[in-house]
Amino acid sequence: MGVDAAQIAVLGDGENDIPLFKAAGLSIAMSNAAATVKAEADFATGANDEDGAAEAIEWFVLRGMRTALR
Questions:
Q1: Rounded Cα gap, residues 63 and 58, in angstroms
Q2: Phi/psi of residue 29, each to 5°?
Q3: What would the 3-class secondary structure string for 34-62 be?
Q4: In this predicted model, what pLDDT tens digit does every residue of 4-62 receive, in sequence order?
Q5: Reported pTM
Q6: Which is nearest to 32 in space by CA: 20, 41, 21?
Q7: Are strands 26-30 and 43-45 parallel, antiparallel or unpaired?
Q8: Cβ of 22: how many Cβ atoms within 10 Å?
Q9: Dihedral sign from CA coordinates of 23, 20, 4, 69
Q10: Distances, alpha carbon 60 to alpha carbons 15, 36, 45, 46, 57, in Å
């Protein structure tokens, strides 16, 4: 699709997400993830059952869009 990996954000909570974390420009671990997963992430957000993904989208995507539109 022509999108540079540096412009991609990923969320994950499992060991299988670590290679994706390393390839993406921004990696966000869920707070319920294992310590080894969180150690590889750039940031951590709330748990899966605490709307952590929505929290990350609000913080990293929507706030950035609002700033860019000003």
A1: 6
A2: -95, 145
A3: CHHHHHHCCEEECCHHHCHHHHHHHHHHH
A4: 988 899 999 999 999 999 999 999 999 999 999 999 999 999 998 999 999 999 988 88
A5: 0.84
A6: 41
A7: parallel
A8: 11
A9: negative
A10: 23, 23, 11, 14, 5
How distant is the alpha carbon of residue 45 from its chain centre? Answer: 8
Across the beta sheet with 26-30, the strand order is 9-12, 26-30, 43-45
Q: Which two tokens stand for residue 45?
A: 């957000």
Instruction: Specify the DSSP class assigned to residue 15.
Output: G
List, in sequence order, every residue forming a beta bridge with 40; answer none if it has no partner.
Answer: none
Q: For each of the domains in the chain, give its residue range(s) and CATH number, in order of start.
A: 5-69 (3.40.50.1000)
